[in-house]
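TICKET #2291
ISSUE: user wants both folds in one file
ATTACHMENT 1:
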Amino acid sequence: MLFFCVTCQAQSAAEIYYEEADEDLWTADTFVGDADGTDWGFDAPHPSQHAGLLGKVFMQQRYLQLGVDDADVRRIDNSLQGFDSLINLPVMTLETEVPLDFDLFFGYSNVGLKGSAYSGLPADLLVAVNGKSESYSLGTSIYLTQAERWRPFIQLGVEYSQADFDLTMKNAVDTYAENFVDGQTDMLFNAGFEYDLFDVLGYRMTIDCETGGRFRDSLLLNDLILWPHEKIFIRGGLATSLEGGGIGFAIGGGLTF
């Protein structure tokens, strides 16, 4: 660093740097704070610069396997298996005293189970089940605009779910078959946070809350988000029921635009 004492008026280090560089690398947009210069601080990083998914345009698909805790169902199949897809779009910033950002998301999931079990004597029944549950969701993620490395969020929306199960019971003399279909629409409420572990690795915790009438239990989701490329991410983690159900996992990835 150079120091100049030639003139009677001292120059700051910043003024000297700007004179030598012949350009101002900082602008008012770089900082947030009061107009008189008090309480200045760095603005939040652009969404492309953090290791999470909030504030980004992306498409995602994952393979799902969710454990089943019910003993009778486990005789048919040990887990629900399927996939989910998600599209996320940043839509607006609400300029309030504490600015909030809003993302719009569209989701689809398809999980099911298939198998059979023998009831044994005296019933002597072979019970076979082939079923699936489909869900369509639409909602918004709400989070702090100025959040940096740690980004809490909530998600509000609606979800339509439909369960479709074929049940067959067979013994030596007779066969009984029935199809059960049930659909419902419920409120969607999730809460959680993202945290940047490293520049290319983020952690995301989500509590997927069960609302009245939901088919499944509330879930605690713990995900890691890895960025092998600035436009490609790999996402995977564990899903644990908060109501005594089984443990599962989800793994997949997606693209940002």
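ATTACHMENT 2:
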Amino acid sequence: MTNKTKYILVGFFLFMLIVAIVMKISSNRLKEESKKYEQLFDMISKIEHNRALFDMKNNIKIYNTKRYKNSIKISENKKEHIIIFKDSLANANSFIRKLANSNTVLGDIEIKEINNKIEITMRIKK
């Protein structure tokens, strides 16, 4: 083998090593992000299972707290209340945790991620 071939092989192996390291780092970050969402969905499933215990008075207390007041929009029509919560993942996590640990009325829940913010839409039938 010539020196040129050896340099090409060494360069190729170094390149592959760098690619492997970058892939490992990115997969670790992805796992951390997915854990945050798993916690959110676990709490939502807890809410879904306890739906029979909920009443509307506790909802009003939670929605009117200082931490969530700016993030929540409540609208009403003839058939249902529509509550839209839009904030960061951390605040969405604490909001869902608060709902999961209280007796609140919930209807259909829809979750979207929009521009690094979580939007939770709840429809509560009257």
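RESOLUTION: both attachments delivered.
EXTRA DETAIL ON ATTACHMENT 2: The chain has a mean pLDDT of 76.
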